[in-house]
Amino acid sequence: EGGQLGGVNREAKAFKNEESWSFPPPNVYTYASAISSCARCHKVEEAFSILDRMGGDSNSGDNNSDIASDAPLALATATVLPNTWVYNAAMTACVGGSSSSSLNNRGKSQVGWTRNNYQNRLDTVLALLDRMEEDARLRGRNTLPDTISYNIALSAIDNINDAVLSGGKIKVERSSMTIPSLHESESPSLLTDESRSERIVFDLLNRMEKRNIPRDGITYRNAITACKLEPHAALRILDMSLADSTYLDSLSPFSSGRTRRGVAATSLRRIDHHASEMGLIFIVNAALSSCAIAGDMHLVSNLLALMRENMVTPNSATYKHIMKAMGNSGDCASVLSLLNCLQGDAKSNQELLEKYQIDIIGDAKELKLVPIVLEEQHYTAAISVCLQNGELKLAESALQSMKKSGRIKPSEHSLQEFV
After folding, report:
1. Residue 125: which pLDDT band, with cuts at 50, 70 and 90?
2. DSSP readout, 323-349?
3. pLDDT at position 138, please?
4. Cα–Cα dist 360/271, whole Å
5. Which of 84, 176, 222, 313 is the most buried (most CB within 10 A)?
6. What is the rounded distance in angstroms from the CA atom of residue 5 to the CA atom of residue 257?
């Protein structure tokens, strides 16, 4: 036994002394992977600590103290410099999640996330964007922000909206604004204290245009959701997307070549519901969600007209946003009418046509749509909207309608809305 242990010790010693078994120094891929892992776990402090260990720290002696780390300088590796990929990974750590401490008070853990916490995250992301451009311009590094960089920054703004929504601090104002005039009108914001976020969104979009950075479907979707508390701003961004020839050209694999006159006299291609989620319906639904939050049925009606004019096929998410808009406008009875319309009920369709100029059956005929098959998600959305607005009887009616369909049995997910 002693001989065996001795042999093991000799092998361990040989392993320890064998140079071929030593770990190679970390490279840019190692750092990027480590930061990405922290980002997936929403470990903001850890992600930035790793970023600050990389060599050539551009924070030394400048004003970017908000990003600077307390990591020992001895950990820096002067031969490994961050690139765009690394910075994007670090910015991703600032988006979503609620388990990390505030970036504005490094080292001081704060439990629970508020609007100010997310504002600190956004400020850090914007500072990183500036630092990326500075590293590229002044130091010749491969750090120029790309489309992904800006998409992440826009997503960080949406975190603030979520914090506001969870706090129930929304003051709704109605508007009679029409879609075609969005690109010409400067409308008052839905929430005046959100104006900074709105300005940042348009600044980022303009910066992308000036730097010839392509704006894709995710860009416009994130920009719209970043303004989802400001439906007028969201619709202006939708208008921008419809005037962006580069973005529209990227949808050509899904087009039929037929064009229609739309917002700003833009020629659009027909996009059916089988198109990728980066298609126009992806963008339009984001704008529709903003109108739904505000409960502005006038804007919802105009958006549906826009979809019909440009032959954009609605999907299940579209109808759920309409239900939410009806609920937030205080008209839960129309939610049940919409359910009936989707089942081909002409009387309910006429009611919505007279009340909101929404013609579900007529649009389906014009677009030659296959009749939608109602699923549990539609009934559950209707139930949820009714209950959130205190309409228990209407919610029960939606549940009974589900049972009468004969195809769908209420699941735990549907019934838990009543609990």
Report:
1. very high
2. HHHHHHTT-THHHHHHHHHHTT-HHHH
3. 95
4. 18
5. 222
6. 77
Phi, psi of 392 (to 5 degrees): -65, -45
Query: In this model, does residue 294 exceed pLDDT 50?
Result: yes
Q: Give Cα separations from 377 to 272, 399, 410 (angstroms).
A: 21, 12, 10
Backbone angles phi, psi at 58, to 5 degrees: -80, 0
**What average pLDDT does range 222-248 have in this prediction?**
92
Cα Rg for the chain, rounded, in angstroms?
Answer: 26
Rounded to whole angstroms, the maximal C-alpha distance in the chain is 94
Tokens of 202: 């348009």
pTM beyond 0.85: no
Q: For residues 362-374, b (16+ Cβ closer than 10 Å) or e, as one string? A: ebbeebeeeebeb
Sign of CA dihedral 48, 51, 55, 58: negative
Task: Give pLDDT tens digits for 310-359.
Answer: 888 899 999 999 999 999 999 999 999 999 999 889 999 999 999 999 99
- Which contacts qualify for 61-69: CB closer than 8 Å, 24 or more apart? 64/127, 64/130, 64/131, 66/103, 66/104, 66/123, 66/124, 66/127, 67/124, 67/127, 67/128, 67/131, 69/106
Give the residue with greater pLDDT, 116 vs 372.
Answer: 372
The sign one gets for the Cα dihedral 361, 363, 364, 365 is positive
Closest CA relative to residue 106, chosen from 52, 149, 61, 145:
52
Q: Which two tokens stand for residue 305?
A: 């007209």
DSSP character at residue 61: T
Q: What distance in Å separates the CA atoms of residue 248 and residue 152, rounded to the nearest whole number?
A: 22
Under a CB-based contact definition with an 8 Å cutoff, are residues 232 and 267 in contact?
no
Amino acid occupying residue 277: E
Burial tier of 53 (Cβ tally within 10 Å: 0-12, 13-18, 19+): buried
- pLDDT for 153 beyond 90: yes
**Structure token pair of residue 50:** 């790793």
Contact 94, 44 (CB under 8 A): yes
Distance CA 366, CA 407 (A): 28
> Count of alpha carbons within 13 Å of 313, Cβ hemisphere only?
20
pLDDT at 419: 57
Closest to 311 (Cα-Cα) out of 290, 281, 286: 281
For 104, 189, 223, 389, the CA distances from 276, given in Å and listed in that order, are 39, 32, 19, 34
End-to-end CA distance of the chain: 67
